[in-house]
Design goal:
The chain is of the alpha+beta class. It contains two helices and seven strands.
Length: 217
């Protein structure tokens, strides 16, 4: 009996020892796993906290954007009201008080404006200093009558020769001077062109210019 007990006790003790050892190892493993789980949980908690912080920041930005949009909408609405008020005021002012626009137009007129006059131009000759004279026209005037009236009004004399016919009267000099003896003569120009008739046969009109120049044969 004792032998049987002894033969059974040793295996039982061995099994108990193995069981205790295995149990201890299992407990240690469970403790390690528990620690690892705690670390994972802590990391997850930290991640969740970070995510919550980020979410909170995003929400704050969204709220700020919404507030900014509200402010912009309010400003836009106020601006639209001001524009509408200005348009209404402008319409009322335009209807009640027409705007008068004054324009000043400056125009250069190159064309000479003539009165009822003709112009007499005479070259300088000896004692006669020459001149430019404006003479009022009368009915049936010709170049000679205009020249005579210029002489009367300006105190100079005329020396003439009457050739008759188409030649009519020619001018020999002024204030007694006569150049026929020294190869010169007085030529008669009508409106800038040498006249083909004598002074007395040249019709005259308002704005005409008659001119007497000393020329050489």
């Amino acid at each position: 009996m004792n032998k049987l007990f002894k033969s059974l006790a040793f295996p039982a003790i061995s099994i108990l020892i193995v069981t205790i050892i295995y149990g201890g190892l299992s407990i240690a493993s469970l403790n390690n796993q528990t620690k690892d789980l705690k670390k994972v949980n802590q990391t997850s908690a930290n991640s969740i906290a970070d995510l919550q912080n980020q979410l909170s920041q995003i929400q704050n930005k969204v709220n700020q954007t919404l507030n900014l949009n509200d402010n912009l909408q309010q400003s836009l609405s106020a601006a639209q009201k001001q524009i509408s008020g200005l348009q209404t005021k402008s319409t009322v002012q335009t209807a009640s008080t027409p705007t008068v626009i004054t324009k000043t137009i400056t125009q250069t007129v190159d064309q000479q404006v003539f009165t009822n006059q003709a112009t007499v131009i005479i070259d300088k000759d000896g004692s006669y200093q020459g001149g430019i004279y404006q003479v009022n026209l009368q009915s049936d005037d010709n170049a000679f009558t205009i020249l005579q009236r210029a002489a009367q009004q300006n105190n100079f004399t005329i020396k003439t020769t009457d050739w008759g016919g188409n030649l009519g009267v020619s001018i020999d000099g002024f204030n007694g001077d006569n150049h026929f003896s020294d190869g010169k003569y007085w030529s008669f120009y009508y409106n800038g062109n040498s006249s083909m008739v004598g002074v007395s046969n040249q019709s005259i009109f308002r704005g005409d210019v008659i001119e007497f120049r000393i020329e050489t044969y």
